[in-house]
Amino acid sequence: MAASQKLMSVRRDWRERDVRVVLSALIIAVATVATIALFASQLQRTLVTSASSFLAADRQLESENGREIPEAWLEEASSRRIQTARMVEFSTMVYGADNFQLVSVKAVNDAYPLRGQVEIQEGADAPRQLVTSGPAPGEVWVNPRLLRLLELEVGDTLDVGNRQLNISGLLVREPDGGFRMSSLAPRVMMHSSDVASTEVIQEGSRVEYVYLFAGDEGALNNYYSWLQPQLEPSHEWEGVRDGETFSESLQRAERFLLLGGSLAVMLAAVAVAVASRQYAMSQRDTVALLKTLGVNSKGIGRLYLRRLGLWGLVGAIGGLLVALPLFWLLSSVLGDVLEQQVDMHLDPNALAPALLTALVSLFAFAYPPIRRLKNVPAMRVLRSQPGESGREAIPDMAIAIFAIFGLVWMYAREVSLVLALLGGLALLLGTLAMLGWVLVTTLRKISGGGNAWRLALVGLYRHRRASLSQIAVFAMTLMLAATLILVRTSLLDDWQAQLPDDAPNHFLINIAPDAVDGVEEFWAERGQPLRDLYPMVRGRLTELNGQPVKEAVTKEERVGALNRELNLTWMESLPDDNEIVSGQWFRPGDQRGVSIEAELAGKLGVEVGDELGFTIGSDKVTETVTSIRTVQWDSIKPNFYMAFPPGGGLDDMPATWITAFYLPRDQKSALNEFSRQFPTVSLLEVDHIIERIQEIVRQVTQAIEAILALILAAALVVMAAVVSATMQERQREGALLRTLGGRQSLLVRSTMLEFALLGFFAGILGVIAAEAAVWALQFRVFEGQFQWHWQAILPIPVISALVLALFGRWQLKPVLSVSPMLLLRRLE
Amino acid sequence: MSDLSEHHSQDLRPMLKVTDLSHRVSLETDTLTILQGVNLEINRGESVAIVGRSGSGKTTLLGLLAGLDTPTEGTVELDGAMISQLGEDERAQLRSRRVGFVFQSFQLLPALTALENVMLPLELSGSTGPEAKAKELLERVGLGERLYHTPRQLSGGEQQRVAIARAFASEPAVLFADEPTGNLDNRTGHDVSDLLMTLNREQGTTLVMVTHDERLAARCGRQFSIEAGVLTEPARSAEAETGAVN
């Protein structure tokens, strides 16, 4: 190979340490971004699929007016390559053996479910199995409780209206077993073709037709745009995102993944920038020599540009080669967690950010210092010229920051995320400037000596420029890693708090006032005391400040809460997860006033001091709004729009009581006894929903841990890259010190101390900046409460000091094992 | 061919002609004069030593003569080209065709083998068969067995011999040497300077060397001394009597 070509061969470049660092950083950058993007897209698909299975589809259209929707709507969906399925839900009495029971029937067609699976058992002791269809015509699947109530078994027949249907399985879980107050009666699932022959549905029957849609996100959105103008108020279009259950947590998980991806981009960029600057420095002699040998500036520029292009290619290909196996690995771990086959999907869109990252990293971070190489004077071959003053680095930094935030924005599409990180970074650089000043003014006074501490401090001072820039990079790296750790911790804590292991998984509804004591006693005897019992009064909101509410609110049909009866309650103290946003909660002894849920208040334009009129049965109750509070709708607990004080406006109204409680799986048999003893109390079993949600939380947690591990690994590599950037100089110094008679132990101790100090300062800075970023993120992006993370503030600087001390020891190794003479020669 | 005829037509002109050359650098507070009023003419095939202590300005002068830098005042004419008035790129082109260098610190590219280091200028100037020629030169400097070693695997003397082979590879009209034995011990330094002188004679190259080594300087046809930026020709050797004008 010709020498001049070889000047540009990657293999030759690889022999140079700085190029190895640039290429490694680039490969890591592309690999991290590609892995995260691929995995995040995979996870997102899995999550959406999981979440979609709450609907058994991607979207649902409910018709609550007892009429089916026009057939043309479904045809239009099919023509847009959207899959459809239909079901009808109604309540009826069924008969089996000698008993009657009110049940809630769901009749489904062959296409059901479009997403998720139905879990059934062929007998009480048979294994659970997942199937992707409903029962065949002539068959029904029923809730196990119904069999207990009717004293039937699988294989018996059940009379539904005029039809006898064969009970062919136990319905353990339906994919759209959403949790609605109406589904109190035990469930019977049948085939929709049998519905007509039961003759249950008559004129005026309360029937709900539900249509399921699944397909491409874009197609669904376009379809909805087409459909929306034709919808009536009784039609309700529901998507995964606006379903109540857990959607907020899903969104937060998604944002976390994006944050992780963004931080990976920043880390990678930092590594590339540091290494390429170092590389450019080391190339100055070569450039001067090439110029002396007659290569002009343009030639030099071309040479290095082509070299960068080559690196980009190697970095992109190498990064993808690393990313793909990693992705397979993570995905199969995800599959194990989900206990289901995860279909691998290589999303080409997910690769684009990785390649773009490679390009931007090269041209925004690596190119500026390398571009300036062509300005290196030829005269440098004869006499070393003053290096870069550092002033040139300012525009580099401006370009870099601009590019980093461009990348993060491209990646996360979240302005507040970008601003939070930018704020953290600004704080970091500001503090760093102060630290630099302190370093220079205080350490200057220390003179060298035989003591490791003094030597370490002198070392810090002597390398102050390198030290400061290394602290900057370490602090930035730590800030990014710490941000991620802190956000992860608070995210997981939030979820844990929301869904503790003993989260209520059963509801008791319709408890008559005189049965309350008996019910409480029943469960107390079985070691499951009921905690919060709420009275519930059904009523409509009819007046707002003396005016009929439908006149007072112009877009009243948009406010679903006005179209149906609301559950009103009275309570003494504010539930833990509610929060007053305006006004004041009832004081002890208060008997007037009402507290309204914030979102509804917003839609109605209600403020504290407004007067609300309720119609309860034939009575009217008027109360002034005394507080507005937020409600955690995705908590599985009784939640109320309206709360009155005890002894207030609801006092004389007919109330029933509601409660939610936790019942371990092995005590479920107590439910049969309960049903017999309190036949009028309705029981809602949501344990399967809770399990499902907990499973999703586990998945997301695993994913978050995996991504965190990946990013921490990247952070370590960045640190290693930065340490190795000044390795040669430090090794030479070490060799000199040994030559001049420094003892090995002194050298080791002072170097480790110097690095530990470096790490400690960087750790403190990083944590402060991370706290700032987390504060902003919690505030804007994750909508959580900010608190100081004392448990992170102390360990992070200590850990970073330890890690860096070890890095320092590691880079000293050659200095200790080889004779100083050999080393000095080698470092010439 | 045209190159050759150009050579002949310029044969009678001096290889290097320096007129009223001064060089100053501005520092933060004032201006430092490094060279002042230098006049110098060097004929083809001559060997010239410029002797001076550290900081006397000799390296700056060498850089200006070779067109690595441009002077603040005055002109430098190299092989008929007014290099002090050429742009950076034109000077680079001139260097690749006419000029060779030997440095105190050898300046070999660490990632290239000995052979590749020698081939580099040949390839840059577009010569044919660079490899054969580079091998021949390395044989000539006694490194035929070390073609594929990288600079790190070579001793200082060997590295300087590679550098000399590289300097002569493109058959330069003029060779500039900056303290070529400065980093070598006496014995090795002597061997290296022998080699340099021999090749210089064989190829008829004009040699301009700066050094503080009086003995090495004495082996050149003419010696100049430089002090505080002023060039003088203290002892003119007989055979050069007619050549130089101060």
From TrEMBL, chain A:
<feature type="domain" description="ABC3 transporter permease C-terminal">
    <location>
        <begin position="707"/>
        <end position="807"/>
    </location>
</feature>
<keyword id="KW-1133">Transmembrane helix</keyword>
<feature type="transmembrane region" description="Helical">
    <location>
        <begin position="746"/>
        <end position="768"/>
    </location>
</feature>
<feature type="transmembrane region" description="Helical">
    <location>
        <begin position="256"/>
        <end position="275"/>
    </location>
</feature>
<feature type="transmembrane region" description="Helical">
    <location>
        <begin position="788"/>
        <end position="807"/>
    </location>
</feature>
<feature type="transmembrane region" description="Helical">
    <location>
        <begin position="706"/>
        <end position="725"/>
    </location>
</feature>
<dbReference type="InterPro" id="IPR025857">
    <property type="entry name" value="MacB_PCD"/>
</dbReference>
<keyword id="KW-0472">Membrane</keyword>
<feature type="transmembrane region" description="Helical">
    <location>
        <begin position="308"/>
        <end position="330"/>
    </location>
</feature>
<dbReference type="InterPro" id="IPR038766">
    <property type="entry name" value="Membrane_comp_ABC_pdt"/>
</dbReference>
<feature type="domain" description="MacB-like periplasmic core">
    <location>
        <begin position="23"/>
        <end position="212"/>
    </location>
</feature>
<feature type="transmembrane region" description="Helical">
    <location>
        <begin position="21"/>
        <end position="40"/>
    </location>
</feature>
<feature type="domain" description="ABC3 transporter permease C-terminal">
    <location>
        <begin position="262"/>
        <end position="376"/>
    </location>
</feature>
<keyword id="KW-1003">Cell membrane</keyword>
<protein>
    <submittedName>
        <fullName>FtsX-like permease family protein</fullName>
    </submittedName>
</protein>
<dbReference type="Pfam" id="PF02687">
    <property type="entry name" value="FtsX"/>
</dbReference>
<feature type="transmembrane region" description="Helical">
    <location>
        <begin position="471"/>
        <end position="491"/>
    </location>
</feature>
<dbReference type="GO" id="GO:0005886">
    <property type="term" value="C:plasma membrane"/>
</dbReference>
<feature type="transmembrane region" description="Helical">
    <location>
        <begin position="393"/>
        <end position="412"/>
    </location>
</feature>
<dbReference type="InterPro" id="IPR003838">
    <property type="entry name" value="ABC3_permease_C"/>
</dbReference>
<dbReference type="Pfam" id="PF12704">
    <property type="entry name" value="MacB_PCD"/>
</dbReference>
<keyword id="KW-0812">Transmembrane</keyword>
<feature type="transmembrane region" description="Helical">
    <location>
        <begin position="418"/>
        <end position="440"/>
    </location>
</feature>
<feature type="transmembrane region" description="Helical">
    <location>
        <begin position="350"/>
        <end position="370"/>
    </location>
</feature>
